[in-house]
Amino acid sequence: MKVLVLNCGSSSLKYQLIDMSNEEVLCIGLVERIGIEGSILKQEKDGVEGKLVVEQPMKNHQDAIKLVLEGVVDPKFGGVKDISEVEAVGHRVVHGGEKFASSVKINDEVMKALEECVELAPLHNPANIMGIEACEAILPGVPMVGVFDTAFHQTMPKKSYLYGLPHELYTKYGVRRYGFHGTSHKYVSQRAAEMLGKNVEDLKIITCHLGNGASVAAVDGGKCVDTSMGFTPLEGLIMGTRCGDIDAAILPFLMEKEGLDAKGLSDLMNKQSGVYGMTGISSDFRDIEGAAAKGDEKAQVALDAYVQRVQKYIGAYVAEMNGVDAVVFTAGVGENGIEIRESIASNMEFLGMNLDKEANKVRGKETVISTADSKVKILLVPTNEELMIARDTVALVK
C-alpha cells in the first residue's frame, strides 16, 4: 500500500510518500514559509541526484497542498506515475479535544468534530482541515486517516492535566491540558532508547520538540507524564508567533486597554506574539538569528528568552521525574539549531549533562551530542512523525 502522509505545521508542511510493503520512502518533501515571504517547496527522491525546487508564493496551506500533489507525480523526483497509485492518505491532526484519543478513519462525523476543535488549535486545525479537503477533492474515494497529536499525552496523570480551576469547567467543557506534538515525542523517545541500547521502559527522557511551534515532554518509562503545551498549543514555550506562558491577568488588562474582543485577543497571542512579536522581524528563527548576529538587541533578547524557557522546563521535568537519563532535541530548530542547542545545554552541567561542542556541530543527523562521560545523554534525533502516521493509516485502512 502506498500512503501519502501530510504533516502540516503552522508555517510548514512536511510530506512523504511511503510504500508500506517495506516502509520505503518513495519521495520526501518540505514546504517552508507558508504565508511568509519566500515560500518554497523542496522534494527529493532517494537515488536521484538533485532536488525538485518550487519557489512561488503560497498564501495558505491549500496552495501548498496543490503543489505537493503535483510534486509526488513529478517524472523525475516523484514517487508514482499517476496520483491514482496513492492508496491512502494519513493526516497529522493537532487537536481532537476529548473526542479522539487514538487515530481514526476520516468521515463526515470526524470532519464535523475537527471543525468544532478549531477554536482549540486556531493555527493548526484549519490547516489540517484544508489538507484533508484538498486531498478529498483531488483523490475522491481514497481513504483518509487522522492521527492526533494529543494521543501520546493521554497517559498524563490528573495532577499534570488538571488546571487550578473549578472542576465543573473540566467536566462541562473539557478544560484540561491535552499536550501536542505527541507523535513526535513518542517517536523520538523510542528511537533515543534504541540508540542507547536500552528499553524505553527503563529510562527517564525529556524530549524537546523545537520548531516554529515548540513543546517539551517528560517521558517516564515510555509514557508521557507531563508536557508544556496545554488546553491548546498556545501554552508553554515562546514560539514563532505564539506567546507561550504568560500571566493570565494580562488578558483582561489588554482587552480593556487595546479594545480587543475574544477573537482579537486570540489573534494577538497566537499570530502576533512569540519571537515575531518580540522582534517585529519574523517568525522564522533563522531570520532572528541572522538579525542577532548583526547586533539587533531585540532579536538577541528573543533568542535568550526562548532558550531560558526551554531550560526552565527541562529543570522542572527533572524534578518531576526525580532524575533524567537523556535529553533529546528534535524538529526544525532542535535538529538544525547548533547555537541554540549549545545555549540550552550551557547551564545544565550541575545535572551531569555535558555537551560535546564538536559533536554538536551537525544538522539533521541522528547522533549523540554529549561527551562520553556525560551522566545525562544528549541526543539529536530527527523526528519521523510521517512513518508513525503511515503505520496507523495502514492499520486502520486494512
What this model shows, in words?
The protein is globular, with a radius of gyration of 20 Å. Helix 11 crosses helix 13. It has 14 helices and 14 strands. It starts with a strand and ends with a helix. With 398 residues, the chain is α/β, with parallel strands linked by helices.
Low-confidence stretches: none
Q: Per DSSP, what share of the residues sits in E-state strands of 2 or more residues?
A: 15-25%
Residues in helix, %: 25-40%
How would a textbook summarize the main sheet? 8 strands, mixed
> Structural class of the secondary elements?
alpha/beta
Count the E strands: 14
Shape: globular
Topology:
Blueprint: E1 2-8, E2 13-19, E3 24-32, E4 40-44, E5 52-55, H1 61-71, E6 88-93, E7 104-105, H2 108-116, H3 125-138, E8 144-148, H4 158-161, H5 167-173, H6 182-195, E9 204-210, E10 214-220, E11 223-227, H7 250-258, H8 262-271, H9 274-279, H10 285-293, H11 297-321, E12 326-330, H12 331-336, H13 338-345, E13 367-368, E14 377-380, H14 385-397
Parallel strand pairs: 1-6, 6-8, 9-12, 12-14
Antiparallel strand pairs: 1-2, 2-3, 3-4, 4-5, 7-8, 9-10, 10-11, 13-14
Helix pairs in contact: 1-3, 10-11, 11-13
